[in-house]
Design brief:
Blueprint: E1 13-19, E2 25-30, H1 34-62, E3 71-75, E4 79-84, E5 87-92, H2 98-109
Antiparallel strand pairs: 1-2, 1-5, 3-4, 4-5
Length: 111
Amino acid sequence: MINLESLLGVQGVIAALRFSDDGSLVESVGELERTHRRLAADICYANGRMMHQGGDMLMTLSNTKGWPPHGWMMMGDELSICAVAEVACFVRNSEASFNEVLRVLAEVAHQ
């Protein structure tokens, strides 16, 4: 069975978390300081809501189905955050294959 811990087996993934509909932390694994886990869940929830709002606007403006998005990604110089549904992971860019990260992330999120 694939679970949150499975994401740590993907090269480059250093931490993963699951959050609820209101942004509260459900579980986390990996290299994420305890004090930062709840903040990370809040940030991921808020970014997801903004992406859904943008997706709703795109669907309205374009008359094209396929929105809202299933996930999002924020890429920094060294680290990135990838999220699908209510699961997110933190990734070292130089070590990761983002195709693999997103494939496993989608499996974990939709189990």
